[in-house]
Amino acid sequence: MRNAWIICRKELGSYFVSPVAYLLLTMFGLIFGFFFWNALGYFVIEGMQMQMRGQSFPMNLNEQIIRPLLSNVSVIGLFFIPMITMRLFAEEKRTGTIELLVTSPIRDLEIIVGKWLAALILYSCLLLFTALNFAFLFKYGNPDWKPLAIGYLGLLLQAGALLAIGTFISTLTKNQIIAGAATFGVCLLLWVLEWVSGYETTTWASVLAYMSVITHFESFGRGVLDSKDAVFYLTVIFLGLFFTARSMESLRWRS
Amino acid sequence: MIQAQALTKKYAHTVAVDQISFDVAKGQIVGFLGPNGAGKTTTMRMLTCFLPPSAGTATVAGFDVLEQPLEVKKRIGYLPETPPIYPEMETAEYLKFVGSLKGLSGADLQKRVDYACERCAVVDVKTKLLGKLSKGYRQRVGLAQAIIHNPDVLILDEPTAGLDPKQINETRDLIKSLAGDHTIILSTHILPEVEQTCEQVIIINKGKLVATDSVRNLQARARGAESVVVEIAGRNGNLEAGIVKQKLEQISGVSRVSSKGQEHGRAFFEVESHKGRFVRGDLARAVVEAGWDLNELRPAAMSLEEVFLQLTGSEAAADMGQMGKEEKQ
Predict the structure, then answer these.
(1) CB A101 to CB B102 under 8 A?
(2) Which positions ≥6 away from B51 have C-beta within 8 Å?
(3) Hey, what CATH topology would domain B223-299 get?
(4) Ranges of each domain in chain B
(5) Residue among B74, B78, B84 minimizing CB distance to A97
(6) Residues 6+ positions from A58 with CB-CB distance below 8 Å
(7) Which among A13, A99, A105 has the least Cβ separation from residue B50?
(8) Which of A66, B129, B262, B289 has the fewest beta carbons under 10 Å from its own?
């Protein structure tokens, strides 16, 4: 795994030397900052209204701010993931540097895991921005940190799964745009698949809904660690990386 | 060091490499010669374990490319046709990355990076971005990358393609200087390059092995008869080509004289001599004694080109000759 780490470090270098990482961080920071500001605004207004009416319903930061924001992050993530993964293999194929990697004494799997890990680390950096915002909640209120931690774990697992799919798609083409667009399409589809459960109750509908990455995030968002959902994400990660390996192999037999 | 046996690569509709067999001994520089699309790159990619062969076997340093690819890869330094560089990396940083990929670490890695930089003359661009380097420097960084882990075998795919003449000479000298420590296979479609750098030639055309021999043997094979091109001018601007031709034919040792045209009192001939006879001295003397000027006297064709003509048929050779000349200019 030393080799995977070498690849990972190189990929992180490429992200952070080019404007890619900073652009993504800025955009994500802005977008999430706006969401956070909104959520907080509603929370404050609601609190004031309750005081004026003399009611005293319990206000809960976890339920009213953290939980909806975490599911927002999981959706915003869908839009950022293609931009993270699209260059992973497509760029190497276009410039021919893939030949260097493949003719070096390392295994395909080490290349793949290294790249996927770098993408996951960049995504974690995006999540750090959300942590900055949440830090204010801890300063001025006292939310429970455990559901938040489980929420983050869910976000990472979900991102890991989508990044694995993006990594796979990136091996299929030399063109970054194609890789990015296809990944975006797949991410979007995996998000909206759960809609069928709204009007259908047959078996195929529940299978489709089960495949949706969003449904599996709900329990994490609530702060519940459900092994069923964790297993789903881990399976997608495994399958994504497995298909990436097969795709790299076929690349050689065909090219 | 390298053995290929009936190495074959088939794609869906074409056979790119068809049953090629050859041996390369340790420490040799071998030229892989053929027109564009002959299968040079494909063969090299099979040797470097980038592509698996469809049939046949190849071993590098005793390891099979299909059975023990990791062992083979450890012993090979490979420079693909376009140097595999990351434009956003600095030279030294890139060489460090490649070195660690090849299994080097710590002080050893630093030492090899310094060594490779020195050897390939890229010390002065160590901290420059690879994307900003000129083509010549990129090629040298590519070479540095190939020798970083001190491999037994160097495989270089068209190492001089796209360089200017000065850079070509530098690159050739560099490759020659590397020959002592490494076994080198380099591919090229440029004939003079093979003559100047290689000891052994493997000629392939349309995926098939055409010849494998030492450069000297191939040249000797071509040198059955010597032929020279002469340009002769009359003193006062008038010259009877017929008379000159007769005169040339009378020189002893000359087997055939063919006229190559005439303009403004100058005439061009190609003079062939019998095997083993060198007629240039006699020819020059005869021309001067007859009262004409001898403007030019040179060996007719590059000898390897002739071999190529014999071996691969005129079409490919004409193509190659063209390349050779373009490159020489």
Answers:
(1) no
(2) A252, A255, B9, B42, B45
(3) Alpha-Beta Plaits (3.30.70)
(4) 2-214, 223-299
(5) B84
(6) none
(7) A99
(8) B289
Going by CATH, does the domain composed of B2-214 fall within 3.40.50.300?
A: yes
Q: What is the pTM of this model?
A: 0.82
Does the beta-carbon distance from A105 to B70 stay under 8 Å?
Answer: yes
Q: What are the distances in angstroms from CA B315 to CA A109, A148, B37, B308?
A: 46, 73, 14, 10
For an interface test with A, which of B71, B100, B141 has the most A Cβ atoms less than 10 Å from its Cβ?
Answer: B100
| Closest of B235, B229, B228, B211 to residue B304, by C-alpha | B211
Strand order in the sheet with B63-64: B15-24, B2-10, B55-60, B63-64
Kindly list the distances between the CA atom of residue A33 and the CA atoms of A69, A79, A128, A130, B233, in Å, as whole numbers in the listed order. Answer: 10, 16, 12, 8, 88
A&B contacts, CB < 8 Å? 68
Tell me what ipTM this predicted complex has: 0.88
- Listing DSSP states for chain A in one string gives -HHHHHHHHHHHHHHHHSHHHHHHHHHHHHHHHHHHHHHHHHHHHHHHHHHHHT--PPP-HIIIIIHHHHHHHHHHHHHHHHHHHTHHHHHHHHHTTHHHHHTSSS-HHHHHHHHHHHHHHHHHHHHHHHHHHHHHHHHHS---HHHHHHHHHHHHHHHHHHHHHHHHHHTT-S-HHHHHHHHHHHHHHHHHGGGGGGT--SHHHHHHHHH-TTTTHHHHHTT---HHHHHHHHHHHHHHHHHHHHHHHHHHHH-
Contact A128, A153 (CB under 8 A): no
Q: Which residue of A has its CA nearest to B155?
A: A103
Per-residue confidence in pLDDT tens, chain B, 329 aa: 889 999 998 888 888 888 899 998 888 899 988 887 888 899 999 999 998 898 899 999 889 998 999 999 999 999 998 899 999 999 999 999 999 999 998 899 999 999 999 988 899 999 999 999 988 889 999 999 999 999 999 999 988 887 888 888 888 888 888 887 889 999 987 777 787 888 888 888 888 888 888 877 776 665 555 678 888 888 776 777 788 888 888 888 787 888 878 877 788 888 877 766 677 788 888 888 888 888 888 776 555 666 666 666 655 444 554 544 444 44
Copy the structure tokens of residue B244. 């000159």
Query: Does B103 lie at the interface with A, CB-CB under 8 angstroms?
Result: yes
Alpha-carbon span B227 to B54, nearest angstrom: 45
Q: Which residues pair with B200 in a beta bridge?
A: B30, B214
Whether residue B149 contacts residue B74, with contact meaning beta carbons closer than 8 Å, is answered with yes
Closest chain B residue by Cα to residue A3:
B101
Distance between CA B66 and CA B57 in Å, rounded? 8
Shortest CA gap B85–chain A (Å)? 6
Closest approach of chain A CAs to the CA of B44, in angstroms?
11
- CB-based contact A6 B70, cutoff 8 Å: no
Tokens of A227: 């092994």
What residues of chain A lie within 8 A of the CB of B76, using their CB?
103
